Amino acid sequence: MWKLHRYYLKELTINVGITFLVLFAVVLTSLVYRGIQKSQGGDPFDAVLIVVLFALDSFQHLLTISFLIAVVLTFTRAAMDRELTAIRAAGISPRVPMLAAVLVGLVLCALGSFALHYAIPTVHFAKYRVIPEAMRNAFLSMNLGGDRIRLPNSDYLMTFSDRDVQRGEFYGCTIYCPEPPEEKLSPILFVDRVSMPIEKDSPMVTIRFEGIHDPISGDAPFQSWQATMSFDGLSSRDRRDERDDDLRSDQLLAEVMKGVHRRPHEAVYSLLRRIAFSLMPLMLAPIGFCIAELARDRGRVVALVMSLVPLGLFYLGEVLGARLLLTTREPLVGLLPLGLLLLFGVPLCWRQLRR
Description:
Elements: H1 2-30, H2 32-39, H3 44-56, H4 59-80, H5 83-89, H6 95-127, H7 130-140, E1 148-150, E2 157-159, E3 162-164, E4 169-176, E5 188-195, E6 204-213, E7 224-230, H8 231-235, H9 249-258, H10 264-294, H11 300-328, H12 336-353
Antiparallel strand pairs: 1-2, 2-4, 3-4, 4-5, 5-6, 6-7
Helix pairs in contact: 1-4, 1-6, 2-3, 3-6, 3-7, 4-6, 4-10, 4-11, 6-10, 9-10, 10-11, 10-12, 11-12
């Protein structure tokens, strides 16, 4: 029996690895533009880091989909080559080759559980906070990727015609402000010089505007104007507060048990949702095996199309669970995806394995 297990374990592991690498490469490629846009002229390493962090946030989805595709392809190939038929004819239960998928599913459950409860929340927290650091690097190198800077928490936009990198000064600047600081001013102001000294270890930057002129009225309302802002504000005008997705499961559970969480039902829902995602490979192992054996005479393409049914049911439960949480405030709806998978998988496996 061990030779049979080892035979399918080897093929299944290779298929899982190849499928995951292909899907992960596709996700990385699709996020390249977002990484370049978010880094906004910073160091190339910042763009790469943003792309990798955003891609790692989808790790559990890619792992589950890769596993299901690998199970279906592996055992569809075995069914089409009549290997599974020969195993049944030899008096061996189909549960024996299926055990290889279950073992790989258990390993992926452990890996996915660690990722969902500890690693992915950390990645989710970091991916929204690496952008200010990218902006810091861009300012320190004075490589702003263009001739414009958007001021934080406003619609003000500054352009410049020349700059002194060593002194951190900009010349020939124009400020576009849809809502001017005074009603008599025009929405466009000319500035002779803008100084922006950057301290290496400071999270703030002080910007000083000198020689401000109104090009329409010709007035000079301010001789100088100083503003202090953070790199976080320079990178994004919309501040994102910490959410449950940014917290590890032990932190969420501690806040619920201490009674300090503002919405404990949402925290428990997040915990149950992570448990459902971590158990998904184990649930899909027998379902994928039965789908592959059922599609023996129909080919791999039909088997892959049939495998979309359990995936669709799981993500349908994910959407319905989020909706029901808003109306019922019952955190147990986080396990709804597993319930839908059981409703689909139990009759299928019962029928196919007892033939």
